[in-house]
Amino acid sequence: MRDRSILATMELRLNTVTPSAAGLRPAGTARPAAGVDAAAGGGFSSALSGALREVSNAQNESSRLQKEVQMENPQVSLEQTMVAIQKAQVGFQATLHVRNRLVQAYTDIMNMQV
Q: Where in the sequence is the signal peptide annotated (predicted)?
């Protein structure tokens, strides 16, 4: 049950990325020239680094909001801060899951008989 909620969260995060931003093309579209695709910087590594950057930004934003609430800034609400904290926590948990799955896949591949 817990895996489903994390997968649903990851699907929501992935749906916000447009196919062109992630370097992906819809099925049936023409493949661009090799130089154009490489220049766009698409691929798994750029998508992963972008996702890590977003998680880091969410954590930084939640820390900033926590400090503002502690300093009793009237323009920052407690509800806004709690939502930012939860977003950062969910993003971190999803990132941790992806890392664990990647490590497990690497271990499985390295243990394969050739």
A: none
